[in-house]
Write a structure and sequence with these properties.
Elements lengths: L6 E5 L7 H10 L11 E6 L11 E3 L2 E12 L2 H19 L5 H15 L4 E12 L4 E4 L4 H15 L4 E3 L6 H11 L6 E10 L7 E5 L6 H8 L3 E9 L3 E6 L4 E6 L1 H8 L6 H26 L5 H6 L1
Helix pairs in contact: 2-3, 7-8
């Protein structure tokens, strides 16, 4: 359950649904497995999995939700191979070529025939709502996957007025200035990786890992005009992560000290342990998100008002 990536969104209007009311609405859009002819299914499940029945998990003012996606695994190569075989059979038996439209129809027919035999692959997408802070935080490295969850949540409850966190200062300019000066912002330390991009049309990219980010080699690339698009940082010695030029936070790693806080609580069952982990994680992430927003100049109020 510990989040590995953060896509952070700002509510432009207060989120006023109670956990109980939200759970009832999510239940109406609960996950149902793929039928024989379904390529994909999406729906809500309990964040506690088999250890719970409620569609939300609330603790310390935060509300956890979880979506499940199931896709049929039907490799395109398998379908295409059968299309070719069927087209050749038609050509041999009927003495004519198979046109583009007919091939497309054959592909649909073969897909329809193979779907019931295809394996189903499932994945979970966790997110939590922080009503007091006015944030929606999705555990995803991909903004597309995060938007998929938000879109389904919007379909479920009618409206989800959120926008991605928009800082006052341009992230790549800020990160570039940090590395150029050799000083991380207060409360942070440089990690050991970054990504540099060339602003010219050629768009060259240099990815540095396990490097001293204050070295003359990296500084020379910046002096030559490259800018920082991703930067490894650690926050107060407790959380390591990579932030990119959209302010997405990725590859989160919680220090042992934070994990030990959860292990010190004598939980009686999986549900209780989940509650402890959730409370500790959201407390740590609240501080991290607030600090990241601050060092990038705070939030752009005009973007919030214009949404």
């Amino acid at each position: 359950m510990w989040f590995k990536n953060l896509q952070v969104y700002r509510f432009t209007k207060p989120f006023d649904l109670s956990p109980e009311a939200l759970s009832e609405q999510l239940e109406e859009y609960a996950f149902q497995p793929c039928g024989s002819q379904d390529l994909s299914r999406y729906g809500w499940v309990s964040p506690l999995g088999h250890h719970g029945s409620e569609y939300v998990h609330a603790a310390a003012g935060y509300i956890m939700i979880c979506a499940k996606k199931q896709d049929k695994v039907l490799p395109a190569s398998v379908v295409n191979e059968q299309v070719v075989e069927k087209a050749l059979a038609i050509q041999t038996e009927e003495g004519r070529s198979v046109g583009r439209k007919e091939r497309a129809n054959l592909k649909e027919e073969i897909t329809f025939e193979l779907l019931p035999k295809a394996f189903a692959r499932s994945s979970l997408q966790f997110a939590y709502i922080a009503p007091k802070e006015g944030l929606l935080v999705v555990n995803s490295a991909s903004s597309k996957r995060a938007e998929e969850l938000i879109s389904y949540l919007r379909e479920t409850i009618g409206t989800v007025p959120v926008i991605p966190i928009t800082p006052n200062n341009i992230p790549q300019h800020v990160m570039t200035a940090w590395l150029k000066s050799g000083h991380a912002p207060k409360g942070f330390e440089f990690g050991h990786e970054c990504e540099l991009k060339d602003p010219t049309d050629e768009g060259g990219v240099i990815r540095c890992k396990h490097q001293d980010l204050t070295s003359s080699e990296i500084n020379n690339h910046i002096k030559a005009g490259m800018y920082v698009s991703k930067l490894g940082l650690s926050f107060s010695g407790g959380i390591e992560f990579v932030v990119d030029d959209t302010l997405a936070i990725k590859r989160l790693a919680f220090a042992d000290l934070i994990q030990e806080k959860a292990n010190q609580v004598d939980a009686h069952d999986a549900a209780e342990q989940f509650d402890v982990d959730f409370a500790i994680m959201t407390l740590e992430l609240a501080a991290l998100i607030a600090a990241v927003i601050e060092v990038f100049g705070g939030e752009n109020s005009e973007a919030i008002e214009a949404a």
